[in-house]
């Protein structure tokens, strides 16, 4: 009996030291390149140590399938925002996503000295889960030194949870998040202009209120602007299914444009751009 108790003490002690070693390893690997005390926060290491399972609904961008017995409820909730709100509400606000970048993009090295950015997000009666998942994806996948602030512009929303509850929630986040309220419904462009006028960052980045940023999304955009401050850049736009919230990678062989009726369409990258890039698909496509 004494030997059994001794073994339990040894196992418990070994486990404690193992956890401590993992914590220290993660902490120093996260912070060995930090330049200021803010970036040396313990939070990234703690998040890594206490990471949740990637088996939850929607993790790694997987589809969320609603059981037959909840189909009617799903259809009713779908009408609110024109997407599967029942599925969205079951997905973690900081769900994991796959890294779908080309291998050449993953190995790209960008300048250390990049301009910081204000991320402007306009919303009107947006769902709680999709709006906050957008915010968390920006926070989790943007280098802290490059993220000056997040500016939320409320285009006269009527839903109660987008008022005091939202203000209380964003107040606790690690990066400054400001909420600007339009006095009356003004539309996307006027609301974005309001957010741009109030921005304090060196660059303004506009995002929709129901999107998710992936790993490495910000650095290439800011690097192009550092090369030429007059550049306007747009990333590859992937797809999140409105029905299952499955994350699907977009194609780097297409780019967005308008036809003569001013309808937005996806067009194949023209041969002249293929020739100019000499087969290097990691280089930007010119409009």
TrEMBL record:
Q: Which Pfam families match?
A: Glycos_transf_2
**Keyword Transferase in annotation:** yes
Under the heading InterPro entries, the entry gives:
Glyco_trans_2-like, Nucleotide-diphossugar_trans
Instruction: State the UniProt keywords alphabetically.
Output: Disulfide bond, Signal, Transferase
Q: Which residues form the signal peptide?
A: 1-31
Task: Specify the superkingdom.
Answer: Eukaryota
Any one cellular component term from GO for this entry? Answer: Golgi apparatus
Please name the GO terms that the record assigns under molecular function.
polypeptide N-acetylgalactosaminyltransferase activity
What is this protein called in UniProt?
GLT13 acetylgalactosaminyltransferase
Native species? Elachura formosa (spotted wren-babbler)
